[in-house]
Amino acid sequence: MRLKPVRYQSQRCLHFITFSCYRRMKLLDSVDARNAFERELERVRRWYGCYITGYVVMPEHVHLLISEPERSELSVVMQMLKQITSRRLRPQICPTCGKSGITISRCGARRKRWRS
């Protein structure tokens, strides 16, 4: 029984990757969201040194035809692309006070400490 999936990298091939948004929500439905995704895709592509042969951005998922990166593994490239885009698209809400557009460091609220 394998614990990790078999990865076919370092063969200089293109990879067709499809990934969906959180719970298949239509997070990429607006023009601003798609533009933010495209900006981050270009930034990650340049940083890791890979080529994007083609891509399709749908409201709830993305298709990519991407080469293997020069700097790292493809899984790291995808992880960074998704994390950075998620942070750009997510509204900044303070978890303590619930104010929108503000982070916990700016509002001065203190987090509750849970003790076991």
Strand content: 15-25%
Q: Flag low-confidence runs.
A: none
User: CATH class of the domain at 15-90, please?
Assistant: Alpha Beta
Q: How far apart are the termini?
A: 37 Å
Largest sheet descriptor = 3 strands, antiparallel
CATH structural fold name of the domain at 15-90: Alpha-Beta Plaits
Average pLDDT rating: 83
Helix content: 25-40%
- Over all CA atoms, what is the radius of gyration? 18 Å
Number of helices: 3
Instruction: Count all strands and give the number.
Output: 3
Give the strand line-up of the largest sheet.
1-3-2
**Can you name the CATH architecture of the domain at 15-90?**
2-Layer Sandwich
Globular, elongated, flat, extended or rod-shaped: what is the shape? globular
Q: What layout of secondary structure does this protein have?
A:
Layout: E1 15-20, H1 31-48, E2 52-57, E3 61-66, H2 74-89, H3 104-107
Antiparallel strand pairs: 1-3, 2-3
Summary?
The protein has helices spanning 31-48, 74-89, 104-107, and strands spanning 15-20, 52-57, 61-66. Helix 1 (31-48) packs antiparallel against helix 2. The protein is an alpha+beta fold and 116 residues long.
